[in-house]
Write a structure and sequence with these properties.
By secondary structure, the protein is an all-alpha fold. The protein has a domain of 135 residues. Helix content is 82%, strand content 1%. It has 17 helices and two strands. Helix 5 packs antiparallel against helix 6, helix 7 runs parallel beside helix 13 and helix 9 packs antiparallel against helix 11. It is globular. The relative contact order is 0.08.
């Protein structure tokens, strides 16, 4: 059991934030949508007030989720997010005819409240809330100091996204929507692949860093980098070479025109170049966090955002929407390189030369995958684009894994042995 003294401070602050949002909703609405009519503003104000209630629930859920991850209860921490989808479906089915979009808006705070009940129950053996009037104790002050750079970094990312949308609005019609649709898939890759790996690794990194076992930590980090490469390189290749198919399968219906498909596919194609670098950047940033260093990732994060904005302005003039997403990928590459270079300051034991053998095998297998996908794309073995995509991806992934096995990639051999052991036990 441990005490969450900081929980009281942040709960109080977020409760105040909710009050601010509720009472300042009219001002916020006018800032976000200055061209809206009075009727549209009224609707938006109601939405903001209802959604504002979710802030406290989301914040508290994140605290409990961190506790679950720290205690290796990953299944519960991940599965509670399904509650939102379930509640949304129920609310839309039952109340959409009478309430319209408000049914979906109401689903947000209610689903988050239910999630909160689940994670609170799941952490009952680890967490005991300690109420105190002395909010700013030593631990809380230390946490606030470390939190400052992280908040600055998050704010700059939001500014960057706002500027990207502003630049897209200056391009051809539909560019803003295309950027948003492609960003959804980019976020999907980040959540499903990157976050899942890093959530598990961060627990190990934090515990090992606390014990000052740098040799073991270096091993975890090295394995993490290799595993991210093994997973994200084929994902990037498949997305880059099949961006049009992916967009058509997901969005290509109704009012989604061929021009919209082309724009979204172009944006997604250049987003895919940065999948790997975003994964490495997140892993190295978490390593700094494990050592209690939040300043270095924030410094390079702000630097990459500034660079991203400059590149977006320049490249969008020549490449359109593709230039904006390419700028995002390039800034991810540069920031991940800078973070890797700075890693020596906290972890002198790390030697990147030890990665070259495994990474070289991954690159060779990835090259084989590129050639295979290229030839498969020329063969019309299915009329259905969905079936063709599924078969192409399945064959490409199988050949990719077999190539790594043939090249004797240690991580794949280790995974194969684990699967064999599980089958033997059954």
């Amino acid at each position: 059991m441990f005490y969450y003294k900081s929980f009281i401070v942040f709960s109080h602050n977020f409760f105040c934030d909710i009050l601010y949002i509720v009472f300042l909703a009219p001002i916020i609405s006018k800032i976000l949508a200055p061209s809206y009519t009075s009727n549209e503003l009224s609707i938006m104000i109601n939405y903001i007030r209802v959604l504002g209630i979710s802030i406290f629930f989301v914040f508290t859920i994140n605290i409990y989720t961190a506790v679950l991850n720290a205690n290796r209860k990953y299944v519960l921490a991940r599965s509670v997010s399904c509650i939102y989808s379930l509640v949304s479906i129920i609310f839309i089915s039952l109340f959409s005819k009478k309430m319209g979009v408000m049914a979906l808006v109401l689903a947000f705070p209610i689903s988050y409240f239910i999630q909160l009940l689940f994670v609170q129950y799941g952490t009952r053996q680890y967490v005991k809330i300690h109420f105190t009037l002395n909010c700013f104790e030593h631990e809380t002050k230390d946490l606030l100091i470390k939190l400052g750079p992280v908040l600055i970094g998050s704010a700059t990312i939001q500014i960057n996204q706002f500027i990207d949308r502003m630049l897209a609005s200056m391009l051809e019609p539909g560019a803003v929507s295309a950027l948003s649709y492609s960003a959804v898939f980019n976020d999907f890759v980040s959540v499903v692949f990157v976050s899942s790996i890093i959530t598990v690794l961060f627990t190990e990194l934090s515990e090992t860093a606390a014990k000052s076992d740098n040799i073991r930590l270096t091993k975890f980090l090295r394995n993490g980098i290799i595993n991210i490469n093994i997973i994200l390189i084929p994902v990037s290749i498949i997305t880059f070479m099949n961006s049009t198919s992916i967009v058509t399968i997901i969005y290509g219906r109704g009012a989604f025109s061929s021009d919209a498909i082309h724009l979204t596919a172009q944006a997604l194609q250049f987003y895919s170049i940065g999948f790997l670098f975003e994964g490495i950047r997140e892993l190295i940033a978490k390593t700094f966090y494990a050592f209690g260093n939040t300043k270095t990732p924030t410094y390079y994060g702000v630097l990459s955002v500034v660079l991203n904005i400059i590149l977006s302005i320049v490249l969008s003039r020549f490449m359109g929407i593709g230039g904006i997403t390419l700028a995002t990928s390039m800034s991810a590459l540069i920031s991940s390189f800078l973070l890797l270079r700075s890693l020596k300051s906290i972890l002198p034991e790390v030697k990147f030369s030890l990665l070259f053998s495994s990474l070289g095998k991954v690159v060779i297998a990835g090259t084989i995958e590129i050639i295979l996908i290229f030839f498969l794309s020329k063969i019309s073995f299915f009329d259905s684009q969905l079936l063709k995509f599924i078969v192409t991806v399945s064959i490409a992934c199988l050949v990719y894994l077999l190539s790594l096995k043939f090249l004797k990639c240690y991580e794949i051999i280790q995974l194969t042995e684990k699967i064999k052991n599980i089958i033997r036990r059954k």
